[in-house]
Each structure stands twice: as structure tokens, then as C-alpha cells.
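Quick illustration, no need to memorize.
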Amino acid sequence: MKILHPTKHILLLLEKVSNFKQDYTFVFIKNVYLRSRKFKEKNDMKVGDKAPEVLGRDENGNEVKLSDYKGKKLVLYFYPKDNTSGCTAEACSIRDNYERLQAEGFEVLGVSVQDENSHKKFIEKQQLPFHLIADTEKTLNEAFGVWAEKSMYGRKYFGTLRTTFIIDENGVIERIILPKEIKTKIHGEQILAK
């Protein structure tokens, strides 16, 4: 069982209450947690780090492990939400380059916080040939340091930072494509560009 930071535990409980996100108490607790994270353990993965063994569960509920991809390079791409314009463009770019990626020894896994059912629909609608991890508890997002506070139209909220990790045949991160570098419509080509 994963032990949560006490403030984070409260924050996750409060996030489940839909109208509470605009409440001052929620904002205060969120800011306390964010400040405490800066000074405590930070889980951001860096080039040269070993990726975690357990990655999560895919759209079919099957456990996905890093060792399932031993001997292959793994593209682990984090995206904010199924069926949104940017995430669809990114997934379709990877889909359109999937055969080339496989020819170069890559396998692909997408990760977002939507559930298995959402992922199944997204895969079916976009005809994606790769699996998607349903990281509903944000465990993998946090382990890789991509779950963060974001801002849109002056509103602050937590979300996934669009980030891609290239993991080598031994499970070590060899390259990271950061949010500002990712161009969703040509992301498949970006991965192949090295």
C-alpha cells in the first residue's frame, strides 16, 4: 500500500468533491502541499534513471510491467486527456508512425488519468495499435514528475504535463521530450528524429 503525504491525502479527497475546487480551503491546502513537495522527495525522472517496474493497468485491466518490454526500447508518452484535439493529434501521429517505430525497435505506451473504458473508446475511435495505461490514481504521473499545477485562462488546476520518455532496452531513461518541445501533429516524427 502506498503511503500518501498527509496533505496530499486531504487534497485528493477534496478533489473528489466537485464544487470544492474553487473553495479557499481547497486552494490553501493545495498550496501547502505544493510547497511541501518542493522541499521533500521529488520523484521527477531524469535521463539515466531506471524506470519503475510496475507501470499500471492498460485499457483491458491487464497489469503492465517494464519487464514486459525487456529487449525493446519503450516510448512512454504522458498526455492530458482522451479525445481532446491535441491529444488526438499526438496519438494519431504516433499511430501513423507506429510501423517505423517498431522497425527501429520501439514499443509504445500512452498514459493518462482517464479510466479503462475511456481508453478503450479512444483506442477504438482512433484505431490506435498500442496500449494506454489508465493511471486513475496518478501513481505513474507522480513517479515521473508530470502531475503538476497548470494554468488556463487564469484558472489554476492539476493536470498531466504532456511529456515523452524514451526508455532503453535495459529500462533506463535515455531521452525526455519536454512539454514545450512536443509538437502534437508530428510527435511520431519527433520520436524517430533522435
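The beta strands are 54-57, 63-65, 73-78, 106-112, 131-134, 147-152, 155-160, 163-167, 173-177.
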